[in-house]
Write a structure and sequence with these properties.
heterotrimer, A mainly alpha, B alpha+beta, C alpha+beta, A: globular, disordered N terminus, C: Alpha-Beta Plaits, 2 domains, two-stranded antiparallel sheet, 4 helices, elongated
Chain lengths: 433, 604, 190
């Protein structure tokens, strides 16, 4: 017996000798089972190549460039009144921000970063992202949506291929124009709960800009481009969530682009020049219904708006769990709950990995439950918000607007300057009434 | 006129160019689509055919034809994948170039045709009609969305929150019922202890043990829910707690309450006080003390031990199987005390504030310092048996100031000291070649010594019922009665341990050898009662928990034996890690530290 | 009539002005609030190899058709083994570069003889698709010197990394640029 002991001992010493040079065990399971060799023939251990990202300063360059482009566009649209200038800037934007920067310095997506930072103490945005989010909005607040005109690569690619735009009926536009609100509300909900960044995930053109992406996203991108030949800028008008914010700010813009440099003579030349249906035509009194009918309707919609908000909030509360399942932690808890009893082989990778990590179940369920609660509150707010949007849209559609002359709709006009080319009025001509 | 004609002719040509280009683009798109589908098929990572062929080849290694086939297929698969990628990329470039041409053509036409726009609307509807329609459709659309949302919510009816909360409550209840159990344990074990053990010199009742400072650390063996030092309250390897689970399994998660990774390695065992669990970790460059929440494994704090006066720039070389953090820390509810391979010793309060730190002098022993700390009456005891300078040191646990130090005429050792109480006297027992000796904790005076041990002493002594047991490889397993401490009552050298410490109760004295044999001797006569081959190396010291013996091998397998005739094995429980340190027990939970992970085991 | 209309216009312009200024103030306020919790550094995605379980999703989930996650060799940790768990299939019969013995599906690891008994392994990045098979092999049988990393020269740094969304071990996180590379055991040469 003793002999065997000795044998074992020798074996142990052998192992020790092998392991002796080894000084440090590196953290977290990276055990240096085999020592670093001592090379005799002068071999030098190569250095591991660290891949560095494009310097962060370039982001500031991009922000500066964006500001510059926006200034140029403002000048082109408001002073120079040149469609061709806007077109050129669009081409540049598409090439630089689109294909060269691969669509990923993007104020549209920055909504989510800003939201995530506002609602999560542990989420940080970089300073350039904040600038990226704010600058187009500030321009819009003073000069209209010049960002959409030619500084947004997504807008530029659609604008350039709008070959044969068909006019859409106004009511179709009003109806589809509500989609961005829903998209925005969902994006904010998911970003605030740190679940997903849906605007970026479903950015239709970024896959084209990168020449790489999932089949689905490329297909959606191509499809939107095909549609975009006939229905101008479908993404901008009916999906873009940043467009909602630009729309709001642009409505109160100080100096918005005008079709005519002087007073409108209502020559109707520009009437159908806008492929986006963003020109408000002159409206005279007599085309309208009776006054008391309209007043009654307005009161009716004003009254049902709170009801709509309540209905939205109620629906949000009902739906919040379905929405919450997008969140990884919630879906994992859900899967874990359902698969707890299963054999290991039948459990999915997430559940198996989670088990191996050994997070205490109590905190795990608590986290998931907390996130579901956030979704509950968030969904209620979202539902109420959407109810309000629907209510206000309905109310707005029952207010008659009497106006003279052709004017771009300050909310929806992209300041692309197409209509300007059609106006026969010159800046200096004196119009007599 | 002629100019217009010229434009017309040009426009016609341009339209034709655009038409041809668009056909080209469509063709490219179709090709790319086909390519894409092929790419999906030729996913290089999951080549089932190749893998099966390779497996077949491994069974018939001489099948040259098969080998050639494997190589060919492999090459084909890789080629297909990368060519496909190239094709898609080139295809996209071509398609985009086509689209660019079309765009330029159309834009040119648009710019150069200054014709008056036709009225595109089929019939100009008055605005109010449009508004009416819009209102109607928005109402319809809105209600559709609402309806759809409500129906889908109703159909799925997940009730996530309720279910999660239910699970949460279940998990909480589990812990709550545990604590109820622990309270009853406390009472039980207190009664049991007072009957068997002599009353301590300073019986401090620790009811709410969380951060309650106490003057003394002397307790009855394993009676409390704290686990202040290596191998339990006095270092005997005896725990008296109820509610300790007898089965667990890391693979299925059974009874695993939590599991965490410990940043730096170390072969020291956890020590516990209240909700705090302490362990240390170190490598050659970095030394850290960690405090975790016992209940959920959350790290409460960590302290990096650095910039200590007198600390060497380079840690001494140690054996890989000793590491730089082999000594187990000690805690008394006022603080936690830890020592490392380079001789750095620290006292840290329960909130992670450094109380004191200094260097004991660079250890001079060829495997690396591994003796754990002992606590007695506000003193931290360090058995610092270094080559040519062996001593036992007592430090004030609050200030780190030395209270006494005695030289020992012994060789270097790796064993930890233990504390015993015999006839109302508390003694520190320390073993090294050539003797085991008892010291007065107040003065450091040697009370007795017995030359019964030799070699490079690794195992710490065991004590039960007035008898002390020492063991070392190339020496002997010896029993000393404290009534006559200078003589041994029996010795045996059949199975000897060089790493795991022995453990004993009134009836049995147990040695587990590092090469994996468990031997049980009669504590009184020294005759072998039982032996068992464990088929795996054991570095962790066995522990007696109530009437059961826990033996954990290197692979993380803990065998549990009933301590009765034939030592029936009643459980084999595994954690997925190599385990060198000894198990710790507190409040019905077991804490197992492996190479990577720290497990908490308890009844779920 | 004229003056009435002009009054109306003036009032509306005044109202617009008020709203515009309050919106601008709101945006400025938002900006200042956000700047307080912003990073001046660029934020990048980081893959923590100590959390990675090599599930293989990095190869398939990246928005780029050839993933930006690739294997990186930390030479400082490598044992230069002849029998390399990251290079050879576990049951390989011969220790050579033959296709049937290799773990890597795309032949992206170059094996080079240095001296008895040491071999150098080098990752050919253009070929690596980030499947992590070699990483798994090296972690299981060797020192763990092969580690998956996001190659930031390839990565387009999506706002929300598509791999991070499906990573089962939560090994991805958004960190300031200076911390974007996390290699275990890497020693920077002076």
């Amino acid at each position: 017996m003793k002999k065997r002991n000795k044998m074992k001992k020798q074996y142990c010493i052998f192992i020790f000798l092998i392991l002796l040079p080894l000084q440090s065990l590196v953290a977290d399971g990276f055990t240096q089972r085999f020592p670093k060799p001592d090379f005799e023939e002068g071999y030098k251990i190569p250095e591991t190549q660290i891949a560095l990202a494009r310097s962060g300063y370039w982001e500031y360059f991009d922000v500066a460039l964006l500001t510059f482009l926006l200034s140029i566009l403002t000048w082109l649209v408001l002073k120079k009144r040149s469609r061709n200038g806007v077109l050129l800037i669009s081409v540049f934007t598409l090439l630089y921000f689109g294909f060269y920067r691969e669509g990923c310095i993007c104020p549209i997506g920055s909504i989510q970063n800003i939201t995530a930072a506002l609602f999560n103490a542990d989420y940080f945005v970089s300073f350039s992202t904040i600038l990226l989010f704010l600058i187009p909005l500030i321009f819009s607040l003073f000069f209209g949506r010049v960002f959409c005109a030619g500084a947004c690569p997504l807008g530029a690619i659609q604008d350039l291929i709008a070959f044969k735009p068909m006019p859409l009926k106004k009511w179709v536009q009003s109806l589809l124009g509500l989609i961005p609100f829903i998209y925005l509300a969902l994006a904010i909900l998911y970003a605030a709960t740190r679940s997903d960044f849906i605007i970026c995930r479903y950015d239709p053109f970024v896959a084209l800009f990168r020449f790489s992406g999932s089949f689905l996203m490329i297909a959606i991108g191509v499809l939107l481009l095909l549609i975009g030949m006939f229905i101008a800028r479908p993404y901008c008008r009916f999906f873009c969530p940043y467009g909602v914010l630009l729309n709001w700010t642009s409505r109160f813009s100080q100096k918005h682009m005008s079709i005519t440099p002087n007073a409108c003579i209502e020559c109707k030349l520009c009437e159908n020049s806008c492929p986006f249906g963003a020109i408000d035509k002159p409206q005279s009194f007599k085309l309208y219904e009776k006054r008391n009918v309209m007043v009654q309707r307005l009161i009716f919609y004003a009254l049902i708006t709170p009801l709509l908000m309540f209905a939205g909030a109620y629906t949000g509360a009902k739906l919040h769990e379905n929405l919450a399942l997008v969140n990884n932690k919630v879906s994992l808890a859900y899967e874990f709950m359902n698969q707890e009893g299963l054999k290991e082989a039948e459990q999915n990778l997430e559940v198996r990995t989670f088990k191996a990590l050994g997070t205490p179940l109590e905190t795990f369920y608590k986290n998931a439950s907390d996130i579901v609660r956030q979704f509950y509150i968030g969904s209620i707010i979202m539902g109420a918000f959407l109810g309000l949007v629907f209510g206000l849209t309905l109310s707005r559609l029952s207010i008659p607007k009497y106006k003279k002359g052709y004017w771009p709709n300050k909310g929806t006009c992209f300041s692309c300057a197409r209509c300007i080319d059609y106006c026969p009025v010159k800046p200096n001509s004196i119009i007599k009434k | 006129m002629s100019k217009e004609n010229k434009y017309l002719w040009l426009h016609k040509l341009l339209y034709r160019i655009a038409f041809i280009t668009s056909i080209f683009v469509v063709l490219i798109c179709i090709l790319m689509l086909a390519n894409f589908l092929q790419l999906k098929k030729s996913d290089p990572v999951n080549q089932k055919i190749i893998n099966t062929l390779v497996e077949r080849l491994y069974q018939n290694p001489d099948d040259h034809e098969l080998r050639a086939q494997v190589r060919e297929l492999d090459l084909l698969a890789r080629k297909a994948y990368f060519t496909n990628q190239w094709q898609i990329k080139t295809g996209t470039y071509l398609a985009l170039a086509g689209i660019a041409i079309i765009t330029i053509v159309f834009q040119w036409i648009i710019i150069n045709t200054k014709k008056i726009p036709e009225s595109l609307l089929p019939e100009a509807q008055p605005l109010y009609m449009n508004n009416k329609n819009a209102r109607k459709w928005i109402a319809i659309g809105g209600s559709m969305i609402l309806l759809l949302a409500l129906v889908s919510a109703w159909l799925t009816s997940l009730q996530l929150k309720d279910k999660f909360n239910e699970k949460l409550v279940q998990n909480k209840q589990a812990t709550a019922s545990d604590s109820v159990l622990q309270v009853s344990d406390n009472i039980d074990s207190n009664i049991a202890d007072s009957s068997t053990i002599t009353i301590s010199a300073n019986p401090t009742e620790i009811k709410d043990s969380n951060n309650v400072p106490t003057e003394t650390i002397i307790e009855e063996d394993g009676s409390k829910d704290n686990f202040p030092i290596f191998r339990g309250s006095m270092g005997h390897g005896i725990v008296k707690q109820k509610g300790i689970p007898l089965s667990w399994d890391a693979a299925s998660g059974k009874n695993i309450l939590w599991k965490i990774t410990v940043p730096l390695p170390g072969y020291n065992s956890p020590v516990l006080w209240g909700r705090n669990l302490f362990i240390t970790g170190a490598d050659a460059n970095k030394r850290e003390v960690y405090c975790y929440d016992k209940n959920d494994g959350k790290q409460l704090w960590k302290v990096e031990v650095k910039n200590i006066e007198g600390s060497p720039a380079v840690a001494p070389k140690v054996l890989a199987e000793t590491g730089h953090a082999a000594p187990t820390a000690a805690t008394d509810g006022n603080g936690v005390y830890a020592v490392f391979s380079n001789g750095d010793i620290v006292g840290i309060d329960m909130n992670g504030k450094l109380l004191w730190a200094f260097n004991l002098g660079i250890p001079n022993n060829h495997y690396g310092h591994s003796s754990s700390l002992l606590l007695v009456n506000g003193k931290v005891i360090v058995q610092y048996d270094q080559r040519n300078a062996a001593k036992l040191i007592a430090l004030n646990s609050k200030t780190g100031k030395q209270i006494w130090s005695v030289n020992r005429q012994v060789k270097a050792s790796w064993a930890s000291p233990i504390l015993i109480k015999w006839e109302r006297k508390t003694m520190i027992i320390a073993a090294a070649e050539p003797y085991v000796a008892a010291y007065d904790p107040e003065t450091g005076n040697e009370i007795w010594k017995n030359n019964c041990i030799g070699g490079e002493v690794g195992p710490s002594p065991a004590y039960a019922n007035g008898t002390l047991f020492t063991v070392n490889d190339y020496s002997k397993f010896a029993a000393i009665k404290l009534s006559d401490p200078t003589n041994t009552i029996w010795t045996n050298d059949e199975y000897l341990s060089d790493i795991p410490s022995p453990v004993a109760n009134e009836k049995y004295a147990i040695v587990v050898t590092s090469f994996g044999v468990m031997a049980v001797y009669d504590a009184v006569s020294g005759s072998k009662i039982f032996e068992k081959e464990l088929n795996e190396s054991v570095y962790s010291s066995p522990m007696i928990v109530n009437d059961k013996l826990f033996v954990t091998d290197k692979n993380g397998l803990t065998r549990i034996f009933k301590m009765e005739e034939n030592f029936p094995e009643i459980g084999q429980n595994k954690v997925d890690d190599n385990v060198f340190p000894t198990l710790a027990f507190a409040e019905g939970k077991i804490f197992i530290r492996g190479h990577k992970y720290l497990y908490c085991i308890g009844k779920k | 009539m004229e003056t009435n209309e002009e009054n109306k216009k003036g009032r509306r312009e005044f109202l617009n002005q008020g709203i515009r200024l309050s919106m601008a103030a709101g945006l400025a306020g938002l900006g200042f609030y956000l700047v307080r919790k912003s990073h001046s550094e660029k934020m990048l995605w980081q893959l923590d190899p100590s959390k990675c379980v090599q599930c293989g999703r990095c190869a398939t989930e990246c928005v780029l058709s050839q993933s930006a996650v690739k294997c990186v060799h930390v030479y400082d940790m490598c044992g230069y083994c002849d029998l390399c768990g990251g290079y050879l299939r576990p049951d390989a019969k011969d220790l050579n570069t033959a296709a049937e013995n290799q773990v890597c599906p795309t032949n992206a690891i170059a094996r080079k003889y240095i001296e008895e008994p040491y071999f150098e392994y080098h990752i050919i990045e253009e070929l690596c698709i980030g499947c992590g098979k070699c990483v798994k092999g090296c972690g299981a049988f060797g020192n763990g010197s092969l580690q998956l990393q996001i190659r930031h020269d390839v990565c387009v740094n999506c706002n929300q990394c598509a791999i991070a969304n499906v990573c089962p071990s939560e090994a991805f996180s958004l960190v300031p640029e200076s911390k974007a590379n996390k290699l275990v055991g890497y020693e920077k040469k002076k």
